[in-house]
Amino acid sequence: MPVIVKTVETRRDLRVFVKFPLALYKDCPHYVPGLFTDEMATLNPAKNPMGRYSKSRLFLAYKDGKVVGRVAAIINEIANKNWNHAEVRFGWIDFIDDKEVSRALLEAVIAYGKENGMTQISGPLGFTDFDNEGCVVEGFDDISSFALRFNYPYYGEHFEALGMTKVNDWLEYRIF
């Protein structure tokens, strides 16, 4: 069956969007979920202060009638103005290990960016640098921190298959 990508339009859709990682990582002992109420507020433009300075659209991917992925498309107008670029960010990206799903999600972000005059894509990023960012590329056997998003090892392979390249490395240290 083909992948169907739908825009999050209702509060119920937003709940499904926020809860999807709980199902995806249910058997992963290293995943630490965000706080549900924080995620709901951050992703609600009326409650997130960046809603005044950003445009965003959330997408859910379905296959065989089941949610198999999610992504947020974000246009941070302040960052674009300050850095003189036309960039759509993607964040809150999670998906099953199916390249058709990851491709469909990122194509939805690209289409949203083009609709709004954007010429570049970057991510995983949030609305601001205070949101969780990045893609784990090693250390999958450690519990994730509350401040960073966790992902399965296959994410990097999917991003590379889509022609994306790493821009920089962020390191996380634990001090005991």
Structural class: alpha+beta
Q: How confident is the prediction overall: mean pLDDT?
A: 87
Q: Note poorly predicted spans.
A: none
Secondary structure tally: strands: 5
Strand line-up across the major sheet:
1-2-3-4-5
Radius of gyration of CA atoms, rounded to a whole number: 16 Å
The helix content, as a percent range, equals 25-40%
> Biggest β-sheet, characterized?
5 strands, mixed
- Per DSSP, the total helix count is 5
Helix and strand string, N-terminal first?
EHHEEHEHEH
Strand content: 15-25%
The rounded distance between the terminal residues' Cα atoms is 49 Å
Shape: globular
Write the layout of secondary structure elements.
Blueprint lengths: L3 E4 L3 H14 L11 H7 L11 E10 L2 E11 H7 L3 E9 L3 H17 L4 E3 L31 H8 L15
Parallel strand pairs: 4-5
Antiparallel strand pairs: 1-2, 2-3, 3-4
Characterize the structure shown.
The N and C termini lie far apart (49 Å). β4, α4 (99-115) and β5 (120-122) form a beta-alpha-beta unit. The protein has 5 helices and 5 strands, in the order βααββαβαβα. The protein is α+β, with helices and mostly antiparallel strands. It has helices spanning 11-24, 36-42, 77-83, 99-115, 154-161; strands at residues 4-7, 54-63, 66-76, 87-95, 120-122.
